[in-house]
Predict the 3D structure of the following.
Amino acid sequence: MTAQAGAAQGGAPTTPAGQLVCGGKLCHAGGQCAADGSCPAFLGACFTSAAGYETCDAYCTAQQFTCAAKSCNVDGTALSNGVSSVSYSAANSADCQTGAYPDTSTFAECLTPIGLSGSMAAGDLVRCCCKG
């Protein structure tokens, strides 16, 4: 269904990823602009400890996005009062690539260490909630 069709049927218009413009900025995610007019939150790509990111803020910044604590649904869409990151065990790495339901999720702030350097196994994967 197109954004226009959704709006015509009484639903909110939804725009595909890479086509949504909020506040004059082309957004990475699709959907709808946030209430403040900014781009919606989304879960970034899967990464392991080898990537070297200690926090979600570091990951999002490196990808030229802003960390969005507690702003994502576990399926990767924007959600107020949502999660800050999701993680998958190495055994479930294919689930991370497909966006399947995560093994764990966190509600931590953006500067909180994400655990890849200590508490998680070497092949475990994380996706952080970002905006931009």
Q: What stands out?
A: The radius of gyration is 15 Å.
